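User: Second chain of the day. Same drill as before.
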Amino acid sequence: MWVRQYHPNMMVLALAFIVPATVYGTALLIGALIASVWARRNPQAFEMLGYAVAAGFMAGEGIGGVVNAIIQIVGVSGDVFGTQIGCPGDRC
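Assistant: Same format as last time:
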């Protein structure tokens, strides 16, 4: 029973095998770390607001994806008007 807390979430591992980009795994890691620190520092606030904040971030990601798709379709995306500043090896 003591190893239960160290057992990984199988859905997260499955996502890591399916999605070829590391940004999703990195976002999951950052979100889990923030949630862990928040739950330890203020468990009552985390219990009350944790799921709402997570749902808001997920909805924001979805809305941002729709806005990004619209901008791409209209033809004013970063591919057209963007720069290579901050891109490793000028390859973004």
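The chain has four helices and no strands.

User: Great, on to the next one.
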